[in-house]
Amino acid sequence: MAILGGIIKGAIDVANVFVSDANHVQNQQKELENLLNTAKNTAFGKHYQFESILNADDIAESFAKKVPYFDYHAMNDTWWKRLHDGEENVTWPNSPNYYALSSGTTGKKSKRIPVTDEMIEAIRQAGIKQVLALHNFDLPSSFFEKEIIMLGSSTNLQERTDDKLEGEISGISASNIPFWFKGYYKPGEEIAKIDEWEERVLKIAQKAKSWDIGALSGIPSWIELMLQKVIEYHKVSHIHEIWPNLQVYTSGGVAFGPYEKSFKALLGKEVIVIDTYLASEGYIATQVRPETDAMQLNTDNGIYFEFVPFTPEVINEDGSIKQNAPCLTLSEVTTDQDYALIISTVSGAWRYLIGDTIQFTNVEKAEVKITGRTKFFLNTVGSQLSVNKMDDAMRHLENHFNTQITEYTICAKRNKHDDFYHNWYLGTDLKEDEAKIAKVLDNFLKEANKNYKVARSKALEGVKVNLVPVTVFHDWNEHNKKKGGQVKMERVMSPEKFEEWETFVKQQ
To answer: Where is the GH3 middle domain (predicted)?
Structure first.
């Protein structure tokens, strides 16, 4: 095996010799042309005149003018529902073999997003890019002999009446891993098919000592719960007592920052954290170098990107984008600006609002960070709080009170005098006066965000903080959907949803 590790590392090193710095703008121009050419004879392509777009002097400009923005509901209600009725060649040639189930953030009603064979291949190629990028992280040959735990949703995909299969994207991806990778893949096909989260994690804990794990992959909150279970089961102080060769954690689904402190508390030594961005709609980006934790957009792999400057004026109350919102191509973006991400893909999503906001850290290298969700933007009386600003506030509280806060949620509510205030729930074991925490939080946000400071001097009357065990957030996720997989916590709730949340917390 030591020889095999050296061979694999050598092959990766050689492959990187032939990989030059990509021209991401040119990549995107080619991707758009390929997408339009492939789909021009579909019902969608004919309706929006893809043939004429391809003949335009500026294809990107013509595409943006002729095709409106879509969110999931607009795309599904107008076009994808025809796929469910058995129609082919709707937004992409033929019909998809898979549907990715996504309820967004702990919603009860699942979305069904088409996943074509071309998208599965694109995800596979993005995975290969990620492996090749390990060359930049200076890992020893021995690392490439080790096994990897990919903790996603169940690979026990459900068969539909039309003979298609559906499940979460992590389960679809894991069920299509290359044959040569199966020897490295843990927890293995049998355990990965278990639907019940608690049962699956227990099986992992039982098998843990027999595996030589070098890498972990999955959403931070669920990886943490799995590691805690393994540590408790074997009565050890940290995970490196079970997996001494663990060197890499590939994070995904959400920003890793909020989980960094609690994740490190489960380790016996440092590991390399590599961020990735796999959504139900496709593999968006992956971190390719250790000098930054930003991720490089996959610009040559089945996705065409557009970017809407993210301001309160262009966002509807439900998080969708107004049709008159301006849109930029990769050649026009700048750093230090939040953008709502728009994608067109080989699964037949067109000018599709994925729901995430990103910020460029390096335009030439097409490197981005996830900064939040369009619907998790709290702009009550002009406070303009995005998720990344809320995350920063949580890191400040962690440092100030020497604690860990991995989960939180917030709602703008009205008090009995009909004035607005921000009501926060923080997942932590901190024992401290909640009013004192609220004051520290409020002061930090005033200093960090001038819009918030102005709002606090006018119609935003106050801040309330409630401390609850982090397990309450996990139980809420389970109550709404299930544990594990792609499930993520709502950072901002509507008053109606918040009322459900507060009732649930009281019952706990």
So the answer is: 299-363
DSSP conformational letter for 321? B
In the three-class reduction of DSSP (H, G, I as helix; E, B as strand; rest coil), residue 192 is classed as: helix
Coil, helix or strand at residue 100 = strand
Q: Burial, 54: exposed, middle or buried (Cβ in 10 Å; 0-12, 13-18, 19+)?
A: middle
Burial class (CB in 10 A: 0-12, 13-18, 19+), 430: middle
Cis preceding-peptide flag for 140 (omega within 30 of 0): no
Q: What is the pLDDT of residues 277-336, one digit of tens each?
A: 988 899 999 999 999 989 999 999 999 999 999 887 787 766 778 899 999 999 999 998
Count Cβ neighbours within 10 Å for each residue of 444-482 and write b for 16 or more, e otherwise: bbeeebebbbbbbeeebbebbbebbebebbbbbbeebbb
Domain locations along the chain: 24-117+293-374, 135-157+177-286, 378-507
pLDDT tens string 120-173: 999 888 888 887 788 888 888 888 888 989 887 776 778 887 888 887 877 787
Token match 């339009």: residue?
Answer: 36
Contact partners, residue 68, CB within 8 Å, separation at least 6? 323, 351
Residue 372 — φ and ψ, nearest 5°? 160, -160
SS3 47: helix
Domain 378-507 has CATH 3.30.300: yes
Contact 111, 166 (CB under 8 A): no
- Of residues 294, 225, 291, 260, the one with CA closest to residue 391: 260
CATH of 135-157+177-286 given 3.40.1710, 3.40.50, 1.20.58, 2.60.40:
3.40.50
Give me the amino acid identity at 245. Answer: N
